[in-house]
Each structure stands twice: as C-alpha cells, then as structure tokens.
Predict the structure.
Amino acid sequence: MELGLWIDGTTPLPDILDAVERAAADGFARAWLNESTGWDPLTVFAALGERAPGIELGTSVVPLFPRHPFTLAAQALTAQAAVGGRLTLGVGPSHAALVEARFGLPWDRPLRRVREYLDVLDPVLRGAEAEVRGETVTAVGGVAAPGTKAPPVLLAAHGPKMLALAGERADGVLTIWTGPRLLADYVVPGVTAGAAGRAAPPRITVGVMASVTADPDGVRDGVAGTYGMAGTLPSYRGTLDRQGIGGPEETLVAGDEAVVEAAVRRFAEAGATELMLFPEGSPADRARTVALFAELAGRSG
C-alpha cells in the first residue's frame, strides 16, 4: 500500500510548491492537492513542473460540473506534460449544496452527468476524438497534446452506483470518512465489481485524518469543528451512516505511534492501495504524524 500526503492548498503558492518538495524528500508516494476556493491544483502542478521529481502528484478532487470535459482534458494534459507524466487526475461531481450555491448550476442526474462526462474525458485524454450528444453533455472533437500520455483518472465516490462507475469507467476510486471495515465490506467490493473484466485492478485511495498525539480527544474535537459540515452533505452522510457514526471526527485515527501504525495496517488489510494522509492536531502533532507516515512510506518503498 502506498502512502500519500494531502498538501494544504490555502497557503501562498511558493509554500505549496515547497511542501510538495518536502513530501518528496520524506518519501511519500504522492502529493495530493484539492480544489476549493483558492488555487487551481492543475495549474499549481504545472507551475511545479520538473521540481520534486521523486513524487507523483494527484488532484483530490477537481469538480466536474463547472467545467466542460474538453476544458478539463486540456488542463490535465497540460499539467501532465509539465510534470513529466506524474499526474493522477482525481475528479468528482462535488455536492449539490456547493454546485448550486457557488456556481449557480443545477444539480440533477449526477450519475448520468458523470458517466457522460467520462464518455468524453476518457478518449480525449488518450488523444482520440469524442462525439457525445448526451442528455447532460455535448462534445464533438478532441484536444491536441502531442506526446502526452493520458493520466490515470480516479473518481470520488460514496454511493453504490458511483462506486461501481469508478471501477467500470475510471482507474479506481477516491473516498474519505471511510474506516477499514466499511472499506473491506462495501467500498472495495463495489469498485471491484464495477471493474470486472478490466485488465488492471482498480486503485482504492482513501483519505484518512490521522494524528500522532497525546490528546486524541482534543484533536477529535478540532476535527469536529473544522469538518463537521461534511456530515450534512448527503453522500458523506451516507458513508457515516453506513458505519453507524455521527460525524467525520469519529473516523479520526489518533493516538501514539503504535496505535496509528496499527490502524494503517488495517487499511492495507481491508484493500486500500493508497492512504492519503490528512495530518491533524497541533503543529507538533502534525509534524509527528507526518514523520511516522514518512517512516512507514520508507518501509513500504
């Protein structure tokens, strides 16, 4: 199982690029950057260019609804060329509350929209042309990016139909707020069933909030304050409800090094192919957490 590191994308751009370089020096397999209300992660990676050559790069996630698939394909292929083929393109439909409030776009038929979006994105990333006149997406043509290999695409998914689509049409899944038991019993089987008949096994990337700390309850309270709203979003709420837990803070992995390392092993045994670490707690706790995961990454490498 690989270990990746989520990079805080709210800091100045030079600091983000430096953080990716530190993640590479620490031995992490991949640096992940999400799209929120600030920097565009694909442009950030293009700005990184050939720096930090020892690390792969991933977006977690780029929302699909605000972009036409040709636009996203052009951005992704540009970033892929700039970083020398190290990109993983993590995408997802986002959430109704965000799409409607932030972008003023309708949230309807998300499964069909994602499927039709991938009908365009997949061939275009591979250098072919698409002709799709669907219910939600129309696209005729392609994107020229000579000499650029298509990046793998991971789909953010929580519900059973989206998990199956991640296996069927993408290279795997990105998920979060998921413990080892739900991963083994629900996520992995759902994605694997969708991928039946495909040559490569699906990638299962799990975002994990973790803290090596002497104060697990305090860190848990902090996670509740920061991420509590996530528990109100339907797709996340479904994942929490399937585990019988109240909020994202209950998925936090916290304790000393032995406790956290044991939890990492459980994720590997449950079928994760990569953990994306979100370090939590005080600055000292976060540093201690990153140090442990770097040590584990070195062992797995």
The mean pLDDT is 96. The first strand starts at residue 2 and ends at 6. The radius of gyration is 18 Å.
